[in-house]
Amino acid sequence: MAGIFALLKGFGTCRPTCSPRFGISPRCSVTKEHAHQIGTAISWFIWKGSIFRVPLSTLQRSPQEGGLGLSNVEAKCRALFISRLQTNAEHEGTLTEAWLQQWNMTKVQRNPLDIRLIPRQYEYLRVYAQEMAYVTPRGLTEGRRTYTKRIYDTLRHMNANAAPPREIRMEHLYPGQDWGKVWKNIAKANITDEARSAWYSVVHDCIPTNVRLHKIRMADNEDCSLCGRRDNLTHRLTECGEGKSIWKWTRSRLARVRQTDAQRISADWITRPAFHTSRQLQHRAALCLIANFILYATAHRHRMNLEDFLDFLRRTRWKDEETNRHTFDRVLGHW
Ligand SMILES: [Zn+2]
Fold it and tell me: Ligand 1 centroid to 223 CA: how many Å?
């Protein structure tokens, strides 16, 4: 799912006037089936050939709740559609204005309109009347874009109430964990999009280890194909081959940040990073180091070695913003 965070930055800032990008015409709003198909296409794009994926309903949560803040396609299309209709109706003499006038939909109504009054062939006006019954009218000083965002939020919450999002699998497996802190750490870490994607996949347990593959009968057993031990996530990242010495080095640096003994740094910091360091600089350094460790370990599984990892860190450090370089230098020292 590399690059998904970069993609989302663009997707989230889509202007309400760009409805053609969503395939909306003033004559038809998106149907549930179309929204589902678009959702499937987005999921395919994000996960490519990955076997284990985070469900779309989870991705639509905010980053602080374990999601990616991905748009709810159905709600977004409808919000853009409503906004488009209203923009059209603002121009006198347009057909849309005439239709909305006809059923008195340009003004706030005390009671919702009985949509049976609108002929069936004007389905899009029925949809409009139905949705607008739940949206508070636009404020006098409220910009069109802010209003469209408000329509979107209302429709999204209505969708969520109709079908509450499923509990996140990992939250269900580890109920005692402070998941709010985990998601916040990943969302706020000052790291590259690529490193964040890798960490997100690891925390959601989307790495195809043999333990997971065996559960769905895609592997003969749970053993690691490199060393024969049980191939779970912790083994894959911190115990197998050179991963062990790389994790040992990383752990000693984390201990230095935390000013504690390396034995007190657990591998849970990778898979369920609920830790907090009161000093901001130290906290940032710890998040950066773990995220880059994960990125390296997941991308170089078959050819990990400590020297190469240190080289990888040096290159990351120089690619990063200056503030990050200082973080590394001051907190982690040279290596
Ligand atoms: Zn192994």
Answer: 8
Q: How many other β-carbons are positioned within 10 Å of the β-carbon of residue 5?
A: 20
Domain ranges of the chain: 4-162, 178-332
Cα-to-centroid distance, 230 and ligand 1 (Å): 7
Is 90 exceeded by the pLDDT of residue 231? Answer: yes
Take residue 322 and report the two structure tokens written for it. Answer: 């200056």
Read off the amino acid at residue 91: H
How far away, in angstroms, is 292 Cα from ligand 1 center? 20
**Token pair listed for 96:** 């849309």
How do residues 119-134 score in pLDDT, each as one tens digit?
A: 888 888 888 888 888 8
SS3 223: strand
Q: How far is the CA of 233 from the centre of ligand 1 (A)?
A: 10
How far lies 280's CA from each of 117, 291, 318, in Å? Answer: 61, 16, 21
- What is the number of other CB atoms lying within 10 angstroms of the CB of residue 171? 16
pTM for the full predicted model: 0.78
